């Protein structure tokens, strides 16, 4: 050791700063930090459903309001009771049960009995959600499962429609039975004007009467970043594409693509049901396959099935394939498999 080195003062050891244990978070991937949480997202969806709900009250009056309130209360009470019995944390105020109740009410005819609506709500929450373990574990959309249950239990009541009060008032009566635009097209070859479908004032379930009210709510969810754009546009685009094929083949017999996406429950399904974070695929390819096949099923059921509407069955059927789509469209992990992979 030379002299200079011997005379050089020893460097002061650097102080090692130990991170606070409170700032360390150990968890499995994905590591994504956001201020959003389940109650915030769910209550935003509730807000987005208000335009369609208010439009239904405007067109169908007090019974539409009572149906909505009945379904929401029945869903919340069922969720509370099941969680209480199972001794699970009570999550009734996170907004998910409210959404199920509102969506179920929007799929019902305006004159549907309140007791039957309550029964459908109990089934939607009990068998469609809580039996699987609660929010995040259900396979099928709970509201649509409740609607399917009511369809099987009360087939006449679920297919009995009435004209909006605004139309009935012009005729000087309180209410009058009427066919939906899809039924008119399927069984009588009568096409409802597109503007009537866009703004409302047509017979149908509470959520079928005004496409523009549903679009407003859906665009708000997209603005908030809570829905993936490819799901509603892919679903509606698929319905329009397959509807256009038959329309080009025989425009006298089959409705045009715009009618397909404005009539019935296509808008409600596109913006508020195929966008469900729980029951639809999480992979990009899986999402595309989901909406394409669901849209195809809507057109096939509407044109060739025994029912004039096919939205409910198209989404429920594709819900059953969601685990399969997630499994087989999962992107490969970097370094896993392949010729140059590590694994």
Description:
The structure is a single chain. The protein has 343 residues and is an all-alpha fold. It contains 15 helices and no strands. Helix 3 runs antiparallel to helix 4, helix 10 runs parallel beside helix 13 and helix 14 runs antiparallel to helix 15 (311-328). It is globular and about 70 Å long.
Structure keywords:
about 350 residues; mainly alpha; disordered N terminus
List the helices and strands and how they pair.
Elements: H1 3-7, H2 38-60, H3 62-85, H4 96-106, H5 114-126, H6 142-153, H7 165-170, H8 181-188, H9 194-199, H10 211-224, H11 230-249, H12 257-262, H13 266-272, H14 284-304, H15 311-328
Short description:
With 343 residues, the chain is an all-alpha fold.
Main sheet properties: none
Count the E strands: 0
- Average pLDDT works out at 87
What is the 3D form?
globular
Low-confidence segments, ≥5 residues, pLDDT <50? 1-5
Calculate the terminal CA-CA distance, rounded to whole Å.
Answer: 50 Å
Helicity, as a percent range: 55-70%
Structural class: mainly alpha
Q: Which range does the strand content fall in?
A: under 5%
Reading the helices and strands in chain order gives: HHHHHHHHHHHHHHH
Radius of gyration: 26 Å
Q: Number of helical runs? A: 15
């Amino acid at each position: 050791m030379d002299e200079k080195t011997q005379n050089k003062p020893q460097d002061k050891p650097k102080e090692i700063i130990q991170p606070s244990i409170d700032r360390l978070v150990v968890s499995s991937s994905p590591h994504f930090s956001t201020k959003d949480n389940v109650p915030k997202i769910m209550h935003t969806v509730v807000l987005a459903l208000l335009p369609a709900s208010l439009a239904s009250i405007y067109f169908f009056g007090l019974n539409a309001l009572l149906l909505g309130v009945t379904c929401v209360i029945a869903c919340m009470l069922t969720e509370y009771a099941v969680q209480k019995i199972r001794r699970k944390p009570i999550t009734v105020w996170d907004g998910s049960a409210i959404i199920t109740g509102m969506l179920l009410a929007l799929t019902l005819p305006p004159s549907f009995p309140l007791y039957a609506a309550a029964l459908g709500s109990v089934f939607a929450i009990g068998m469609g959600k809580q039996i699987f373990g609660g929010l995040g574990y259900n396979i099928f959309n709970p509201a649509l499962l409740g609607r399917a249950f009511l369809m099987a239990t009360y087939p006449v009541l679920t297919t009995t429609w009435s004209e909006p009060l605004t139309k009935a008032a012009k005729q000087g009566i309180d209410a009058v039975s009427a066919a939906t635009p899809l039924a008119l097209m399927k069984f009588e070859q009568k096409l409802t004007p597109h503007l009537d479908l866009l703004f409302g004032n047509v017979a149908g379930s509470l959520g079928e009467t005004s496409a523009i009210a549903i679009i407003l709510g859906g665009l708000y969810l997209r603005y908030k970043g809570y829905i993936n754009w490819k799901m509603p546009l892919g679903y509606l685009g698929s319905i329009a594409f397959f509807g256009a094929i038959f329309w080009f083949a025989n425009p006298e017999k089959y409705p045009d693509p715009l009618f397909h996406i404005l009539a019935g429950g296509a808008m409600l399904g596109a913006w508020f049901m195929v966008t469900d974070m729980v029951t639809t695929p999480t992979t990009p390819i899986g999402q595309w396959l989901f909406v394409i096949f669901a849209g195809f099923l809507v057109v096939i059921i509407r044109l060739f099935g025994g029912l004039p509407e096919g939205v409910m069955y198209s989404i429920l059927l594709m819900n059953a394939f969601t685990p399969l789509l997630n499994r087989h469209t999962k992107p490969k992990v970097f370094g896993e498999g392949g010729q140059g992979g590590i694994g």
